[in-house]
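Reviewers asked in the last cycle whether our approach scales beyond single polypeptides. To address this, we selected a multi-component target totalling 1028 residues and predicted its structure end to end. The input consisted of the following lines:
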Amino acid sequence: MFKNYIKIAFRNLWKNRTFTALNVVGLTAAFGVAILLAMYAVFQLSFDRFHEHGDEIYQVYTEDSGLNGIEANTSKSEPFAAALKEEVAGVEKITRYVSTSVLLSQEDKQFGMSTAYVDPDFFNMFSFPIIKGDKTNPITSESSVVMTELAAKRIFGDEEPIGQTVSILRDEQQVPFTVTAIVKDFPNTSSMGFDIVLNFKSQNEHAYARTIGRWDMENHEVYMQLAESVQPEQFEKSTTDFTQLHYKNEIDNAKRDGFQPNAEGLYRQLKLLPLADVRFANFNQGQVTVSRTMPYLVLGISILILFIACVNFINMSIAKSAQRLREIGMRKTLGANKKQLFFQFWGESILVFLISIGLGILLAVFLLPHFQTLFKTQASLATLLNPSLLLVLILSVLLITLIAGGYPALLMSRLGTLQSLKGKLDVNGKNHLRNSLMVLQFGIAILLISGTLVLWDQVEFMRTKDLGFNKDQVIAFPLNGQLNDQQAIELLRNTLQDKPNIVSVTASNNILGLGKDGSRSTSVLGFEHHGRGVETHMVVVDADYIETLDLNIIEGRSFRKNLASDSLSVIINEAMAKQLNEDDILASQMDLDDAVYSVVGVIKDFNFQELDQTIAPMTLFALPNWNLRNVYVKVSSQNLEQAYTDVKAAWNAIEPNAEFQGSFLNENIDRTLRHERTMITMIGSGSILAIILSCIGLFAMSLLIVAQRKKEIGVRKIVGASVSAITILLTKDFLKLVVIAFLIASPIAWWAMSKWLQNYAYRIELNIWMFLGAGSIAVVIAMLTIAVKTIKAATSNPVESLRTE
Amino acid sequence: MQNILVSLNEATRTVNSGSNKVTLLDTINLNVEAGEFISLMGPSGSGKSTLLNCIGMLDHFTDGGYTFLGEPVHSMKEKNRAKLYKEYIGFVFQAYHLIDELTVYENIETPLLYKNIKSSERKAMVADMLDRFNIVGKKDLFPIQLSGGQQQLVGIARALIGQPKLILADEPTGNLNSKQSGEIMELFAQLNKEGVTIIQATHSESNAAYGSRIINLLDGKIV
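The resulting structure, written as C-alpha cells, was:
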C-alpha cells in the first residue's frame, strides 16, 4: 500500500512537473530564507542568556526628574556600589563595570586590548568560567590581570601565560601586571566583550583615584545579583531611604526647579534592568524602553514568507485536484475510504515539503557565509540546534505540512464518488478561499515593499541631512598610541602643517558619528545657574575645532589660536543659550565647582548626537591637558583619497605601533545607521522574495485558469471577441485581487511606518506616493507575470481549443 | 430466498433540478438471482446508468427498499455499505476509468490494496488474472499505451480480482469497435457461465442478447 502511494506520488509529481517545480522552487526559497531569518532572530534573542545566574542579575540605573521629564541614567559614582550592598537588604553580589581599551605591552610587542574594569564579585556573578590559574580570587589584587584564551594566545602564543608579566600604559607610565587566570572564550551571544579583565581600582587617576568617595562623579555602570528571595520591584521600593540619604541635594534641587516626579512620586529612584533586557534597552529618550521589535520583526518576515509559499502550494493543489477527479472517483469505486485517500494526497504533499525542506536547508547552508557578511552577524545554524528550539522547529514544520498539505487533501477525499467520476467539480465555493489567500499574499508583498521604500527614504534623509558641520572633508581618528594626547596632537600638527592638502587639525574628547574603533562617550555636566539646575553636554576641544568642522558662530567669537588664554572661556550652542535664558548671553557666566567660565560665543545648533535625538544643550570647553580622545583633520576637497593617505602616513610615523583607525565623518555617520541598513536589507530582500513567490503563485494560477477556460475562450473568439478583449477578460480578475490587496495593505503600512518614524526626532513626512509606488510595483509585476500566458491563450486558434472537447 | 442477490422494492430515485423535482427512477421492482446475466436496455436518459449506480451503491435510492444478499442497504450506514460493495461488487465502465498513473499490473492490484490483502497473496492473484486474460506481456504498460479493447480487458480484470458476486457493467463496449465488442461480450458470457452474476446496461440489441434476461427501461420505469 505504502509503496503504491509513494510510486503514484512520484509519478504524479513527475507528470505535473511544471507545477511541482514551481512549488519546490518556491518552498525551497521560502524555507531557506526562513531558516536564515529565524536563525538571526533567535541569535539576537539569545544574547546574554548563557549566564547561570542571569535571571538574578540586573543593571542598576536611576530614574531622575529633569528638565525634559524623566531621564534614565546608568552612570554611577565610586562609593555607590559598596554603599548599596551595605545599606540595602537583598544585594547578593555587586560589581562596578567599565569597558574601555588599553595599550598592553609584552616585551617589545604592543596590543590594543579591550578591557573590563570590574570588582572581584564579577566572576562569581557572570558565567565567564576560569579554566586556568586562580579560580577563587583572580583579580582581588590590583596588579593582576585575567585574560581570555584568545587574548593569551595573541600575546604569548603557545607559551604558558599564567604568572607572566605584562605592562599596561596608565597615566603615561608602564605599570606591570601579572597574569593570574585565563577565562574561557565566551559565546558570541555575549554583549559584554573584553580581552582582559582588571580590578576596578587599577584604573587611571582620572577615572578612579580622583573619584574616591565622591557621589557627584558618575562614570561607570553597576551590575548586581539580587538575593533569590527578593523581587526586583520590592527591591526598588526598599531603596527609597538609600536614595533620600545619598542624593538629598539632587532631590532638593529637582523639587526647587519644579521638575515632575516619576509615577511613584519620587524625584530619583533606583531601578533594576534585567540582564537579558540590557541589550534591547534604549536610554536615549527619557525612560528606559526595552524593545525586541527588531528580532521579532525578522521572525515575522520569515513567517510571512513561509505563509506566501504555503498559499501557493494550497492554491495549486486545490486547482490541480480538478484534474485528478477521475482518479479519486475510481479509487472510491474500488473501495478506498476517505481516510485512505486523505493519506494518499497528504503523503504527496509531505513528499514535496520534505524535498523542499531538504533543499531549503542546503540553500541556507550555502547562503550562510554571505548572510553573515551582509548582516555582520555571527549567528550560525548551530544557533538553532538547541533541543527545545529544534522541537519547536520540527513541530512547526509538521504543522505547516499538516495545514498546507492536509487541507487540499481533505477537500479531495471528501468529494462524492459519482461527481468525481463524471469529472464535475463544484468550483464556486473554493474560489473565495483562493482569492482571499491571493489577496493576503499580495497584501503582504505590498506591505513589505512600501516598508522598504519608507525605510530607505528615511535612511537617505538621515545620511544626506545637513548636520550643521562639515562631514565630507573631515577625517577623524582615535588617539590610540603611547604618546600623551597633547604631544601627539602637537607632533601631528607639525607634520601636517606644510602639506598643501591639509587645512587644519584639531581634537576633542567626543566623536561625531561612530568611528572605526566603535567607541563613544558622552559627558553631561549639571550645575546651578541663577538658583536653578541646568544640564549641558560637555565637549572639550583643542584649537581650531570650530574652524575645522565649519561650525557657524552666531554671536561672539571662536576660541583664540593661543588656547591657553581661553581656558576659562566657553562656547555654547543655541540650545544651551536658550536654557541659560540671558538677556546678554555674551556677558553671562557659568559657575562650576572648580571655576567660573565666561561665555564668549554662541554657535548654531549642530547634530553632535544621532538623529533619533533632538539637539541637546552643549558647551565647548578649551581646558588644558585634558584627555582628548579623537583627532579631526580637515582636508582640501580636491583629492580626498590622497589626503587620507597623507594623514595616515603622518600618524604611522608618529605612532608606529598604533593602528590608524581614521575615517571621514560621513562614513562615521553612515556607521550609526547600521541598524537601519540591516533592517532595510532584511525587509527589502524579504519583500523581493515575497513578490517573487506571490508571482510564482499567480503564474501557476493563470496557467490553470487559462487551461480551464480554454473552451470558453474558443467560443468567445468564434462569436467575435478580439484578442485584447480576451486578454482583458482573463487579466482583470487577477488585477482586481492585487488592487484589493493594495487597498487593504496600504493603511496598515502607513500606520506601521508612521509609528516607526516616531523613533526619530528628525524624520521624513510620509506621502501617498511611497505607497502608490509600492502598489504600482506589485501591479506591474503581476501583470507581466500573467501577460505571457493570457496573450498566448487569446491569440490561439479557437478550432484547436474546441477540438479537445 | 438465498438465491436472490438483489431485491428492489418500489425503489425510486429523484433529484432536484432547480425548483423542479425530476424522477430518474420510478418505483422499480426487481429481483436478481445469483447466476443471472441481465441486460438493461433503453434510450439515453431512461435511467439505466442511474439504476446501475444505485445497485452498485455509488448512488442511493431516495425511496423504497433495496436488499442486497438479504441485507437492507437502504437503512445501512455509509461505512457498512462501502464494506458491502467493496466485498461483493465489481464495476466495469464505458470509459474504462483506469488510473493513468498506474501500470496494468498496479491497476489490477489496486482493489486488493484497499482490502488489505497481503503482498504475497496479491502477487499470486494478480498473476493469475493476467494469465487468465492473456495480458502477462502487457503488465508493465500504462493504460495510454493500450488499445481500447485491451484497456477494457484490464478494466474487467480489475473488476474481477476481488472475486465479486456481482459485476455491474455500464455500456462496457460503448467505446469499442464491433470486433473488440464481440470479444468482450464473449468474455462476459464465459464469466457468467463460471457463476458470476452480471448486470449490464447497453444500447445494442446484439449485446443485450448475450444476457439471460432483458429489462427495458423508459423514463425511469420498467416497461
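Residues 178-193 of chain B form the longest helix (16 residues). We regard this as preliminary and will revisit it once experimental data from Aim 1 are available.
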